[in-house]
Amino acid sequence: MPISSHFKRALRLAIGIGVLAGLAGCARLAEEPEVNPDRWAPPSADRIWTPSPASASDYRMPIELRPPPRAATPAPAQPSGQAPDHQQGQPHDLPALLDLALRVNPDTRFAWESARQAAASFGAARAPYYPLVNANSANGYSRTLYPLPGGQIAQYKLWQAQPLVQMTYTLLDFGRRSSSAEAARQALAAANFSFDRKMQDVVFGVQRAYYALCAAKAAVTAARQNLELAQSDFDAVQQRLNLGLATEPALLLARERVAQSQYDVANAELMVHDAEAGLAAAIGISAGEPMEVASLETVAVPAALDGQVDELIAATIRQRPDLAAKVAGLRASEARVALAKAAWYPTVDLTANYGQLIWRYTFAGPPNTWANQPQYSALVTLQWDVFTGLKRLNDVRAAEAEDAATRAGVRSAEIGAIAQMWSAYYEFQSSQKKYSYGQALVAAAQDAYDANIETYRQGLSTIVELLTAQRDLANARYTLIQSRADLLTSYAAVAYAAGAVRIP
Predict the structure, then answer these.
(1) What pLDDT does 78 receive?
(2) 25 band by pLDDT with thresholds 50, 70 and 90
(3) In which element (H, E) is residue 383 found?
(4) What is the pLDDT of residue 45?
(5) Cα angle 169-345-335, degrees, rounded to a multiple of 5
(6) Whole-angstrom Cα distance, residue 413 to residue 285?
(7) From residue 198, how far is each of 128, 283, 339 by CA, in Å?
(8) Structure confidence at residue 89 (pLDDT)
(9) Quick one: 456 exposed, middle or buried, by C-beta within 10 A (0-12, 13-18, 19+)?
(10) Strand, helix or coil at 183?
């Protein structure tokens, strides 16, 4: 077989391999942050961001700042008992309100756009890895006069076009590009983790406002029940007064209690409107029409937490997004220290240009002279700032001080997170006990009132004793409602403190 055939076959094979490699490179390039920065940001404003498995360990608490490891524990589960969907005319359930909040809340939108901005900045920080190409062309006409001996003046007329394409590429910069890109990448990670925490902020805010509204509506129901009791007491006193068995002052006391109960109803209804405004603000919508929510009694009460306080603290340090954001900020400050130190070294660049020199000129009259020649160059340049007025030294000092401050901030955030979990854990334990005591208090107050109303009708107790029993029952009802809402809120607070808020 002739040699030319071998050569052609090898050439076709090389071209095919080159095309495949180019296509593969283009496909990979399409996923890079400088081309598609949104891929590196959260996918949308209502969905949580998750780091890749390969980089997840980069944002864990540093070992020197981490407490001794504990056994892992599942995150606290959300209480069940909520209807999954909301239908027209039915009370709003918590999952539907959470989904609405994550879609429309401006705080999550702000955090998402901030993360997208950080993603674009990360892409821009990788620009020095690519060659810089620019094109320019100086085109036009110039006329220049020159004095000649004998008092004569010569004219130099020039028409010119000088198109030029120039490429500059950094061959060696001793870590400037990598440090700058790493700082931007860590800033992006911090923005993404901050976005996740902002979503948890919104979820917890809606949970807290939802339970507050449920409690406010339950308080209205309790206030109306208390009004009915006060009215019953008034009717009983009126009946005894008609029989000559009670006095006018006793009737006035009963009437006073009715008026107080009516005031309590009006005040409870006002609290409902305040709670509706709070829930609307937590969701991120304008307070408009009254919002129907499920009865507080239908919301399941959590029985216990899934773990002891030390296990929950370990889970907090391991999974809270705001702590991961602090760690990412620490990594960014470390990259800025490396960038400041890299400024001590030179840079080596490759510069190449190619252009065309097109001239037509005359000097002191005809003839015209034409020039149409290529011009090009290729240079390797070295630039080294030998002395900068101690700027580089102070830049390194500033970067190291920032790194030390950031490290202290990470430690401070960890201490604050531990304290928040500690407080939330024991607040839940206390709320559980108070709710149990509240149930017993309502049962005892109801029994006391039933006994007092019966003995009063038989003339065996006074109006003061009856009204006192009625007041105690009213207070016990309010106490039970508030303790139930506090228990639900404290359970949500534990999940929020652990960074384990469920995103629907």
Answers:
(1) 44
(2) low
(3) strand 369-383
(4) 66
(5) 85
(6) 31
(7) 33, 13, 31
(8) 52
(9) buried
(10) helix
